[in-house]
Amino acid sequence: MDRTKAPDLVEISSISLVEPAKRKEFPVPFYTMDQIPNSTSRIELYFNAGSIKGKVGLASVVSGLLLSGTDKMSSTEIHSAIDDLGGFHDVSLGHESVVVSLYGLNDKLYQIIRLYCESLINVTFYENEIQELKRDRKQRLKINLEKVSFLAQREFSKYLFHDSLYGRIIEEEDYEGITRDEIVDFHRQYYLSGLFKIVLVGDFDEEQIVKIQDVLLPICNHQERDFEKKLNNQKGKYHFEKAGALQTAIRIGRVLFNRKHEDYIDFLILNTILGEYFGSRLMSNLREDKGYTYGIGSMLSEFHETGYFLIATEVGKEHANNAIQEIENEIIRLQKEFVSDEELDLVRNYMLGQLLKSADGPYSMTDLCVGIYSFDLSVDFYDKYLHKIKTISPQRLQELAKKYLNWEDLTIVSAG
Amino acid sequence: MIEFERFTLTNGLKVLFHKDITTPMAVVNILYDVGARDESEEKTGFAHLFEHLMFGGSINIPEFDTPLQRAGGENNAFTSNDITNYYDILPAQNLDTALWLESDRMLSLAFTPKSMEVQRQVVIEEFKQRYLNQPYGDVWLQLRPLAYKKHPYKWATIGKDIKHIEDAEMDDVRSFFDKYYHPGNAIMCIAGNFELEDIQKKVEYWFGSIPGKLKPARIIPSEPEQKKYGELTLERKVPADAFYYAFKMSHRKSLDYYITDLISDALGREKSSRLYVRLKKELNLVTEISAYITGSLDEGLLMVSGKLNDGVSFEEVDQEIWKLLGEFTSELISEKELNRLNIKIRTAREFQDQGLLSRAMNLCYFELLGDAAGINEDLEVYNSITPEHLKEIGKKILKKQNCSVLRIKKEK
C-alpha cells in the first residue's frame, strides 16, 4: 500500500431531514419530534423575557428566581421534587429571549413540566431569595471581572451594540436598584403571558401532548414581540488595562446580518475560511505558525432582525499587538487574493460534513429545523445552503471580504 | 443496551466495533493507555505536550488535520492524568480517511523542530489561559501536591511547572512515542453504520502491518495511606474566599468507587443535596458549594468545594461541614433519597448514551478497565448500593485524617 496517498473521498450530495410536526390550533408555535430511538425527552420553553426587556439586570435577576418558591413549596422542596423525577433543567438568558430547557425520561417529563410550570407561575419572590440571588450574582460578577476574556467581551458588547438596549451591561450597583415590585411586574408581563415558542422532543402520544398543552396554554404570549431592527457598531480600537494579566483578550467584529439576508450563506463560507475551523487561516497563522495563542475563532451570531460577526482570542500579553496585526493581515489577504481551489475544496467538504453532523439524531435535527422556522424560512434553506457551498466562486468570496470586512468598519477591543 | 463486537490484531491492537444504523456519521476513537501519571517527576506535562505533537505530521503524511477536514470530518483529543484519547468524527462514507491518518501516526511520527517549538508555545499559552490567568486557576496545581505525597497524581496534566515544558527536548518526545504509542498500548473503537466483516478488513488493512511491541509495565509509586489531616491557606488576588476539601477515595475498579460517587451526589450534586441545602439555603454561609469525585483510575479524590459569603469565616464553614459529614456517617440515608440519586444517574446516562462519540469513548474506557461490556453493567452496580454501604464507606472516607484542605483567601 502507498501510505502517502489519501483514500478516495465520497462527496456528500444531500442530507435527509425529518422535520418536527407543528401543533394545530395552538396560540403559539409548538413543534414536536417523536422519531426518537430511546426514552430520553426534552422540552424547550421560549419566553419573551430577554435582557433587552426591563431595566438593566432585571431580566437576569428574574430568570434566576423562577424556582425560588411558592406559597406551597420552598425553593428546596421544588428542587427536591424535580430531582425525585430525575429531571434536569436549565435557564439560558439571551438578549431577545429566555429559554427554559427541561430534560427527563419520557415517562417522567410531563410531571417535570407540570411541577416546573406551577412553580414558575406561582413564584412568590420571597425577599430572602431575592437578596440571596443578588448577593451571589454580585460575587460572580466580581470574579468574572478578574478574567480578561469576560472584560473584553463586555466592553466589546458596549461598542458593538452602541447606543441600543443590546449594549447594556450590568454593574454591581445595578443589582441594588432592583426592587421586588419591579421583579413582580417583569414576571407578570414577560413570563405569565410571555411563552412564545415550544419545542418538544420525545416519544409521546397525542393524549400526553394534549396534557402538556393544557399546562402551557395559560402562559402563552399574546403580545407583539419587538426587536431592534438596526444596530450600529462604534468603529475603532479600544484597550482596557488589567494590571498583572498574563494574557490579553481580543474581540474584533461588527454588526452584520442574519440568515434572512441574501449574503448570509456566502458570508458563512468566508467566515469558515477565516476562522471557523481548526485549519482556518486564523488558527493556522496565530496558533499553528506563531504559537501566540491556544485558540482563535470567528463566528456569525444572529438576532431576530440583525446579527454580528466576531473574532475572539486570548494571546500572550507580549504578542497582543502582533496578533491584532496578523488578524488584519489575514483579512487583507482575503480582500486581495483569491482563495485557491484546493482550500475552497477543503472548506466545501468540511462544511458539508458539518451540516451532515448537525442533522444527526432527533435533537440536532429538531434544532436545525426550528432554527430555520424562527426566521420564517422553510427547510429548503438547506438545499440552498448545500447548493451555495458547492458552487461559490473565489471571486464571490473576495467580493464579500471587500464589502463586509474593511478594517476601518470594525470594532477592536482588547483587555489585558 | 450498547452492543459491540471485539477483535484483536496480531500486533496487539484491541478493536471494538459499535454498530448504529441510524447515523450518517462515523467515529474512530483511540485510547492510548498513557497519561500524566506515567511521567517522571522531573519531566511533567509530557503526555499532554505530546498529544499536541500528534497533530504535527506523521511518517507519510505531512499534516493530520487537513485531509480529515477535506473528508468532511473533525477531530480532537484530550489528556488526563490516566489516559490520552483521540477521536475523529466524519461522514461514514469517508471512514478510510480517518483510519489512514490514525494508522500512520500510530506507525511513526515525523514532526519537525518547528512544530515542536510552536506547540511548546501553544501549550505555554494554554498553561497561562487555564491555570495562571484565571481567578482560582492554580487551585489544582496547589491541591494535588497537598493531597498526594508519592503518587504521580501530585502533578496536574498540564505539568508541575511551565519550566518542564520550556525545557522539553526532541529526544524526550521520541522516546515517549516509542514507549507508549504502539498497537499493544491502544484500544480503538469504530462506531457507525457498518458491517463487522468490512470493519475487520479495513482495520487489518490499515493497522495490521504496524509492528507490535510489548505493553510497557506501569511501575508508579503508590500513595501511602494518609495518616494526617493536611491544610494550606494561600492568599490570592480574588474577590471571594474559596475552600477545597479533598478526601482520598478508592480506585476505579472497586465497588467503593461507585459508593463514593453516590456519597458525593448526596452531599453536593444538586440543589436538593445536603451541603447545598444546609450551608447555602439554611445557614447562608456560602454562595456556592458542591461535591464531586475526580473519577481517577488509581486512588482518587472526593471533593467538597465552594465560596464563602462575604463576612463569613473559614472556621464557621469548616465547623458546619464537619458537623454535616458527621451526621451523614452516623445515620442511614432514606430509600427516597437513594432513589433520587439513582434516577439522576440513570437519566444523565441515557442522555449521554445518545451521542455516538460518547458511546465509542466509553466503550474504549470500559475496555481499559477490563471489559467493554462494563458499559452495560454499571447502572446495575449503582442500583445494588444500599444505605448501609453509604454509611460504611462514608465513615471510612469522610474523616479528618483522610482529608486535605486548600483555602484561597482574598488578599487584603
**Number of beta strands of chain B:** 11
Radius of gyration of chain B: 23 Å
Q: In sequence order, what are the helices and strands of chain A, one letter per element?
A: EEEHHEEHHHHHEHEEHHEEHHHHHE
Q: Report the largest inter-chain contact.
A: A-B, 71 and 74 residues
Head-to-tail CA distance between termini of chain B: 56 Å
Helix content of chain A: 40-55%
State the helical fraction of chain B: 40-55%
The average pLDDT value of chain B, as a whole number, equals 96
Spatial strand order of the main sheet of chain B:
1-2-6-3-5-4
- Main β sheet profile of chain B: 6 strands, mixed
Task: Provide the succession of SSEs of chain B.
Answer: EEEHHEEHHHHHEHEEHHEEHHHHHE
**Judging by the overall fold, what is the CATH architecture of the largest domain in chain B?**
2-Layer Sandwich
Q: Remind me, CATH topology of the largest domain in chain B?
A: Cytochrome Bc1 Complex, Chain A, domain 1
Globular, elongated, flat, extended or rod-shaped: what is the shape of chain A?
globular
Can you identify the CATH superfamily of the largest domain in chain A?
Metalloenzyme, LuxS/M16 peptidase-like
Strand order of the largest sheet of chain A: 1-2-6-3-5-4
Tell me the span between the first and last alpha carbons of chain A.
52 Å
- Fraction in beta strands of chain A: 15-25%
Beta-strand content estimate of chain B? 15-25%
Secondary structure class of chain B reads alpha+beta
